[in-house]
Design goal:
Length: 548
Amino acid sequence: MERVWWKEAIVYQVYPRSFKDSNGDGIGDLPGIIEKLDYIKSLGVTAVWLNPIYQSPNEDGGYDISDYYSILKEFGNLQDFDRLIQGMHERGLKLIMDLVVNHTSDEHPWFHASRKSAGSPYRDYYFWKPGKNGGPPNNWPSFFGGSAWQLDEATGEYYLHLFSVKQPDLNWEDTALRKEVRDMMKFWLDKGVDGLRLDVISAISKRTSFPDADTPDFNETIRKYYANGPRLSEFIGEMREKVWNHYDVMTIGEGPGITPDNALDYLDERQGLNMIFHFGHMFMDQGPGGRFDPVPWSKSDFRKVFMTWDNAFAKSGWGSIFLGNHDFARMVSRWGNDSTFREQSSKLLCTLLLTMRGTPFIFQGDEIGMTNFQLKSISESRDIETINGWREAQKRGITEAAFLRVANYSGRDNARTPMQWDNSSNAGFSTGTPWMPVNTNNVAINVSRQEHEPDSVLSYWKKMIGIRKAHPVLTYGAYKPVETDNEHLFVYYRESPEEKILVILNMSDTDTKFPSAVRDARGQVLIGNYANQTKDRMNSWEAIVIQL
Ligand code: TEU
Ligand code: CA
């Protein structure tokens, strides 16, 4: 298999608004990230993915861009950006930028011009349709509640917005628009950006007949109507041929609706993306109503998702491995145990993330075992998806207490509380009032406490990252799961002609007998999260990595 830097990368995701505030306005910023580059380097990661930092009215955490060529004023300016990328490159860190080109903000000049008149030269940069039977052109729901169409009084037509009303979808059928997107990418790549994370890339090719959706299941609607459109490979291939092939740039597609069966369509060696984020595990506990309609999930389903997706990329293509990000609950709260076994399960999930086949993405704060944040009322939410979700829930007569329980389980606010640097009142994030409340468990869970503790979650992450880098089999080796009779045990080999590593994970609150299938394994324990590891029992949330 071809050896390339982006397959060997270990990526740290920084959500700038919540990472570090340098000027006391309560909002994280680029100078704050520059202050922390040595910390990021100390983790052993090789790349940083920055969530959007472009000018934006911040309706959706910066995923509503009003100027692709300037930095959000609260984050800083282009000079700060140049200092940031220089600081990263000096430390051998690559920079991956978030590119949101499925839609813009409704405050983007293109949209102002487009909505002005039906005859505007920018009209076709977006999708405008007359209504039907006194309502929207079709029954598509928005990701953020309500219809995906908004009536615009100026011309009496509706415009499409798969996300919020303030995020009109771009019309990629328009060749002039596609050229604008390419020019903008070149601007950032010419500044030395090493990778692009393409937001909702799976939805940029629309079914322009806009047929009604025939299913009430939201994730099925995404798959059948929003993602995997007819010209998707063509549009991706055009960016590859006209832009990406002229740079050493890693391209990762974020793809709700991408399935194991169609993933390779996106990853053609010549004209595709380098890799994708799939959501097999991330949507596993979403019912027909999507995020705020949670359903139970099982450990065997969780394991099956990783098996299915590894099979999808067994011969070609490449995936990413992530267990959390800015769009989902904190990984230790969602997949682990964030109370009795918070440290052990954080370390187990770290082991899983860094021993699977695919480029690992670590979300800021997961390296110290940060947990979910319990909103006390909806008014504390800073997320359009939760705020709109509550608006829709009220229409169905759902009480605030009931909706709050669901939002506190699966909402995106969980992941967006400020990074916990120390045990002070604002966790060392800001000297001002943070834009979002700090999780008060920062008193116990923070970087400064863990940096010097050899048994801390942070020290374990650093050691595990070192092991991943020291053993190429963990990047390129085959993934071979081992069947056990206990659904909580996640056991697998990573093997190559040169090396074989065995990973044994007990994803449960109870201890259990050591899996008989690998009882005779002999080798050196590279890392484990319990000191008293034996061949008889697996402790609760015990992780063991053995070099055979
Ligand atoms: O998310 C798109 C996506 O995959 C959604 O399923 C996502 O989980 C979102 O929360 C709706 O449930 C990307 C960004 O990661 C997200 O932050 C943005 O809100 C969204 O696109 C629109 O740009
Ligand atoms: Ca600031």
